Amino acid sequence: xxxxxxxxxxxxxxxxxxxxxxxxxxxxxxxxxxxxxxxxxxxxxxxxxxxxxxxxxxxxxxxxxxxxxxxxxxxxxxxxxxxxxxxxxxxxxxxxxxxxxxxxxxxxxxxxxxxxxxxxxxxxxxxxxxxxxxxxxxxxxxxxxxxxxxxxxxxxxxxxxxxxxxxxxxxxxxxxxxxxxxxxxxxxxxxxxxxxxxxxxxxxxxxxxxxxxxxxxxxxxxxxxxxxxxxxxxxxxxxxxxxxxxxxxxxxxxxxxxxxxxxxxxxxxxxxxxxxxxxxxxxxxxxxxxxxxxxxxxxxxxxxxxxxxxxxxxxxxxxxxxxxxxxxxxxxxxxxxxxxxxxxxxxxxxxxxxxxxxxxx
Length: 361
Prior knowledge:
Blueprint: H1 21-28, H2 32-39, H3 47-60, H4 66-73, E1 78-83, H5 88-104, E2 108-113, H6 119-129, E3 134-137, H7 145-154, E4 158-161, E5 171-174, H8 177-190, E6 196-199, H9 206-221, E7 231-232, H10 238-249, E8 257-260, H11 263-275, E9 285-290, E10 303-306, H12 309-325, E11 336-338, E12 342-344
Parallel strand pairs: 1-2, 1-3, 3-4, 4-5, 5-11, 6-7, 6-8, 8-9, 9-10
Antiparallel strand pairs: 10-12
């Protein structure tokens, strides 16, 4: 098992003319692992797939590198993990779960960081050209259209983690974000709160929209009017949480509770409350989402939704490896897996104070 840092992009053609195993895989519409199986004469490949791969090999005049062929014969699966996540807490748990499960499955995992923009495509090409067999995409890359298209054209299986709306043929691991957010909103209402602020997540991620939908659905079910002034935009970053909390707490009639779409923004809300002399939870209930290490690293500790991040990473490794090793066979796999979530109650929530709150200047 190895962990690599980003390296310069290499050309997929040695000297600009020699085809690679990734070229053969792309032409045949299969994964490099399937090409490797055909080259090594393995029997767990469907005849039609074998014919397609052999036709691609002939069309490209591909000659396997003896050293690469020897490595392929060893049978070790190589998967990539491409990440660009603003939450250090989410990322650390995700990496830990991925590395642990890769070790258990005897899988080599290559970890690459990228910056959103064109860089993620450059790093994805680097992984493809390195002969990767599959790739794990945690948020926000789980819904990066350019990356997904590039992998599909190369015939490399990818698994999207924490996407709320995967396509039918996509490998995906997640939770029911809408139901989780609805449960948390209901919990806050059960405490007696009626003015509940909400901080949204990254607008480019479906999970953000689902959490917002859960918040509004719970209000509607309880017969509470929706107040758009109680919703502030966030980006899942601590900094965006600071700005959103300032906006909500500066209202003439501020909320008595704030539900943030992740723990980073909830922690930022607690910080702004402290700065304004507002007691949490005496004057303001604050709740988060994810249950990262940050949720217990601040005071008061956060009431939050436990999203099983490490378990999601382990499940992603398992499902991706299974898909790779069964490529070309008739075996069926469950492409979408939904894991359970839990509402964790700690010290940051309480019933609303019955007297006007006091604050310091």
